[in-house]
């Protein structure tokens, strides 16, 4: 629903224009002031902080559930195929599970103003350490595979998982960023950024698994894993320093 023209104050005099499903409708405040005022209040009323927090909790529960499934599929498929990128992707999912659990605690603490800032600070630090743990693991394993020339086998399950995760994580990251702006939470912004990285990792993983199927491209898998490291490390460092990856902006006070 898109507002067209001006909405006037109490008493609802004048004309209200709205676009609904691409067509224009007109409501005259002097003809139906009660209905017009009710509709105006729905359009201009800000979303409360509690509503944003509840939305955030729903998103984190979805994220937690999906990432638990992702851990299982990625680790099993990665071990069977000998794919360090796929195993690294599974470990990233473990980090995502940890991050979601921490953010669930953070969001539940939001209802208590005295605990809110403390929970925010602790959550931000934990998410930052999760980033660093992921970077260390991927660096160690991928470097070892390159040194020993370990060739991973193809994995249909891994390709399907990466494709699905690309879509799911992109949508979750976008929704989390919106809630983070609504409550002005750096911890949730960092968690949204980590979810966004999971989408990036899905693209890298997908490319590595597909290239790995070509003759002579055994190195594609560990190289794909190593390309993740600088981005993850930089974001982890920023998070530990308490820097937000987006400009702080709150929809509500």
Secondary structure: helix percent: over 70%
Beginning-to-end CA distance, first to last residue:
24 Å
General form = elongated
**Helical stretch tally:** 8
**Total beta strand runs:** 3
Radius of gyration over C-alpha positions, nearest whole angstrom: 23 Å
Structural class: mainly alpha
Oligomeric state, counting identical vs distinct chains = single chain
- SSE pattern, N- to C-terminal: EEEHHHHHHHH
Enumerate the strands of the largest sheet in spatial order, edge to edge or round the barrel. Answer: 1-2-3
Write down the overall mean pLDDT: 76
Describe this structure in words.
The protein has helices spanning 33-44, 49-81, 84-109, 113-148, 156-183, 186-212, 220-226, 228-240, and strands spanning 2-4, 15-20, 23-28. It has 253 residues and is mainly α. The chain has a three-stranded antiparallel beta sheet, with helices on one face. A hairpin with a 2-residue loop joins strand 2 and strand 3 (23-28). The longest helix has 36 residues, at 113-148.
Give a brief outline of the structure:
This protein is mainly alpha-helical and 253 residues long. The protein is 72% helix and 6% strand.
């Amino acid at each position: 629903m898109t507002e067209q023209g001006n909405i006037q104050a109490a008493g609802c005099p004048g004309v209200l224009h709205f676009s609904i499903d691409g067509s224009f409708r007109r409501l005259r405040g002097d003809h139906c002031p009660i209905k017009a005022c009710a509709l105006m209040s729905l359009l201009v009323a800000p979303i409360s902080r509690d509503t944003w927090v509840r939305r955030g909790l729903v998103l984190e529960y979805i994220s937690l559930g999906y990432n638990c499934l992702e851990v299982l599929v990625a680790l099993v498929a990665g071990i069977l195929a000998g794919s360090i990128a796929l195993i690294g992707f599974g470990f990233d999912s473990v980090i995502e599970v940890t991050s979601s659990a921490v953010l669930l605690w953070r969001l539940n603490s939001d209802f208590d103003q005295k605990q809110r800032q403390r929970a925010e600070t602790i959550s931000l630090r934990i998410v930052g350490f999760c980033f660093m743990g992921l970077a260390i693991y991927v660096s160690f394993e991928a470097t070892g595979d390159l040194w020993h020339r370990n060739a991973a086998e193809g994995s249909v399950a891994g390709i399907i998982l990466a494709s699905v995760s690309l879509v799911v994580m992109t949508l979750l990251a976008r929704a989390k960023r919106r809630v983070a702006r609504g409550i002005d939470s750096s911890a949730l912004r960092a968690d949204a950024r980590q979810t966004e990285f999971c989408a990036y990792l899905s693209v890298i993983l997908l490319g590595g698994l597909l290239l790995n199927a070509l003759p002579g491209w055994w190195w594609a898998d560990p190289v794909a894993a190593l390309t993740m490291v600088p981005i993850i490390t930089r974001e982890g460092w920023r998070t530990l320093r308490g820097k937000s990856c987006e400009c702080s902006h709150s929809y509500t006070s």
